[in-house]
């Protein structure tokens, strides 16, 4: 029954009762969906049903978009000074901080993330992003341009109106904030569609936004199926922009729908298949720790995972041994256990998909050094897996696996490594390990990807843009660049002389 969901946590890490309202959040209220349907939310740790949430259809989306549009005109947008919008975002960040344990617990339960990481990274990064964009809310000015002696023009950075945020399941809260924070800071209202698999943290955030004092209708959350609620959002004529994070397949569809309807703007953060380049002069001990993060963090369910690991021949054997030892020592298990380093995959579907890739790697002749199987039991756990003897045309090399599976190649020269790194349709991220600064910069310049991390893993910061090249999409989340994606520039021409 849609209504109040209360889940009791009693663990070594967190003791307390967490409540999440499981209705749709529209116009400042939690409501039932029009046809009162709901869907089970499943725990990936043991396959049990955590709760049910309402699922919205096209009619719910229409109600939410109209509420957001009305709020844009009456109580947000250009009606509210940037400084006031910023204050509300700061307040939301403070509330998130105050409720960090509860929100991290929800994320751990719903997405199977280790609680320690959910709190220290997902929730903390979300807070940092909110504060970063709160600071921008009153600083996103236009320019004054002199055009003639008695004439000038000025530009205004105006909000687009109502935007749609469509979010995947791998970082449910964090990616939600990537959408909400710049959208609201720049004066847009938003309708958010979380993944049907991990809807709970977005609903909790809606509750906190209400407490923070955002006017009704500014932030709306409609949980539901992508093909129904997500599709309705991308079709809606009152939506001016879609900010989408998800697969390349659905991203393509979103773009097509936007083009066929009202030509709404689209930014796409899509899949990846990123290269990790390790040169002979890399610091072995540190590199192994970083590479474990690059491919095994969040159970490998990261768009920026550096799954294609290219290792120079001089360090190859030592690296492979140390990497295998590190992979085998990763502790998997219950999200709330302090020692857990890796949780499960998010769903049975994802488990089957990853096991399918592992099977295809074996069939195509790649060799498994470690892992390669499901851990028996009710949850969706897969052992950290390393493949060697891989060839560039194998499916496990060409496609995004989105699980804890690394493919390791040996290379001789820098040129060869760069060529292999760029041999992909994707271009989201890349990683270079070397103590030679000239090489690090040279190689990072040559890689066709939107990010390059030198001697570290995916440490995203709100001040730094993130987004893809090639089929990893376009448009940036985070940083000053994201502001552009949520504003439109008006040029106003002024003739002081009044003369023709
Ligand atoms: P999907 O593309 O399947 O789904 C993403 C979101 O889109 C979900 O909320 C989904 O809803 C929704 N959706 C599905 N169909 C439609 C539709 N027709 N119209 C509008 N929305 C729709 O991706 P996953 O959730 O499986 O996430 C994994 C993918 O996301 C990976 O490929 C990964 O690389 C990518 N990703 C990219 C990131 C980046 O920043 N570049 C970051 C994180 C992930 P529902 O779940 O209910 O079906």
From TrEMBL:
Keywords: Oxidoreductase. GO terms for molecular function: aldehyde dehydrogenase [NAD(P)+] activity. Residues 30-492 form the Aldehyde dehydrogenase domain. It comes from the Eukaryota. CDD domains: ALDH_F1-2_Ald2-like. The keyword Oxidoreductase applies. Belongs to the aldehyde dehydrogenase family. This is Aldehyde dehydrogenase. It comes from Phanerochaete carnosa (strain HHB-10118-sp) (White-rot fungus).
